[in-house]
Design a protein that fits this description.
The protein has about 250 residues and is an alpha+beta fold. The chain folds into two domains: about 1-65, no CATH class; about 105-235, no CATH class. Helices cover about 45% and strands about 20% of the residues. Strands 1-8-7-6-5-4-9 form a seven-stranded mixed sheet. A two-stranded antiparallel sheet has the order 2-3. A hairpin with a 7-residue loop joins strand 5 (about 160-170) and strand 6. The radius of gyration is 33 Å and the shape is elongated. This is Phage portal protein. It comes from Sporosarcina psychrophila.
């Protein structure tokens, strides 16, 4: 009984001298602090709201900014880095440099792009299965290449027309490219917007070739294609020369 009585006296004293209120207040403050930490954490509701507000302000500002001076400095930095980079990283850095340096072209003719691709094929076509011509000096046989434009079936209700610009090499499928095109039906200039679908991850940059880089730049720069031709065929002689053999 004495123990029970003493406990009642202690509780009564704590309730009357404000100790319990202080303890409750302390834990309540801690509860609020924990709740605020959760709200302001990486995945908290308040953080999400603040992030969206900052994004709505910063993105238009960054898009409107002129990066010309920055690009010039970036070019110098990348050139210096390339001089001191291991071979494994050079392709990636070269491709990154080519993508970042501004050389915007508003439009390009399909025939001009065909000429660029023709040169690319001559320098990169796989010669393993090509025959060797021994007239005059040993050289690989010519390879057939062509340009085609395949227009999609038009919908009477659509405001857009769609087509695919195709570059095809008969001897090496790795040289082939297809580019999606679109334009307003009422566009009097008949210039087509370019869409080249390709992964843009940094890790994939080392595996891109020069023609892919060009198509990606055209896509991101909004370069338009003028279809001054819808079909071309030609022959290309590989730049590589067969190794000399001695009987």
């Amino acid at each position: 009984m004495n123990l029970e009585s003493n406990m009642k006296d202690i509780v009564s004293t704590l309730l009357t001298d404000g100790t319990v209120e202080k303890m409750v207040e302390k834990h309540f403050e801690k509860c609020i602090e924990n709740a605020l930490n959760d709200l302001f954490s990486s995945y908290g509701d308040i953080t999400k709201v603040v992030k969206e507000k900052v994004k709505s302000v910063m993105v238009p500002y960054l898009e409107a900014r002129d990066y010309s001076d920055f690009i010039v400095k970036l070019d110098d930095v990348l050139v210096e880095v390339l001089k001191n980079s291991a071979t494994a990283n050079k392709d990636m850095l070269e491709n990154f440099k080519d993508l970042m340096i501004v050389d915007k072209k508003e439009e390009i003719k399909a025939s001009e792009l065909f000429g660029i691709w023709k040169e690319y094929v001559a320098n990169n076509v796989d010669t393993d299965d090509l025959e060797v011509d021994f007239d005059d000096r040993p050289s690989y046989e010519y390879v057939d290449i062509r340009l085609e434009v395949e227009e999609d079936e038009n919908r009477s209700w659509s405001s857009f027309k769609y087509a695919t610009l195709i570059f095809e090499c008969e001897k090496d499928e790795k040289m082939n490219f297809s580019i999606r095109l679109s334009r307003y039906v009422d566009d009097r200039k008949e210039s087509w917007d370019v869409r080249y679908d390709k992964k843009r991850e940094i890790s994939s940059l080392r595996y891109l070739n020069s023609f892919e880089i060009l198509l990606m730049k055209m896509d991101q720069d909004g370069t338009k294609i003028i279809l001054d031709t819808t079909y071309e065929n030609d022959e290309v002689q590989p730049e590589a020369e067969p190794e000399a053999t001695y009987g």
